[in-house]
Amino acid sequence: MTKVKKRILVACGTAIATSTVVARKIEEEMAKRDIPVQTTQCKASEVKSKVEGHDLVVTTTFVSDTGDVPVIRTVSFLTGVGIEQDIEKIVQYLKD
């Protein structure tokens, strides 16, 4: 049976470098845990218009208007400090 991919919206200020780093790290870490994910990157200002259909928002800056979609705000993917705790938060949100 194929697992359904969980959809994660990754947001940062400009949707260029930071969100790319965060998205790739999330993909790597979830693959290690056999959790299929699909990441989409966007600017923080675009979250409201892009959040629909996603299971989780991971952001490096403040975002609002995510409806019922949970948000994890973190810089640990950039600094390395606290990354294991944030990965565990993501795992908990994505579990069926």
State the domain count. 1
The count of β-strands is 4
Looking at the overall shape, the CATH architecture is 3-Layer(aba) Sandwich
Spatial order of the strands forming the largest sheet: 2-1-3-4
Q: In angstroms, what separates the terminal alpha carbons? A: 15 Å
The CATH topology is given as Rossmann fold
Individual helix count: 4
Q: Which percent band covers the strand fraction?
A: 15-25%
From the alpha-carbon coordinates, what is the Rg to the nearest angstrom?
12 Å
- Please name the fourth-level CATH homologous superfamily: Response regulator
Name the poorly predicted regions.
none
Provide the helix percentage.
Answer: 25-40%
Tell me, what's the shape? globular
Overall pLDDT:
94
Class derived from helix and strand content: alpha/beta
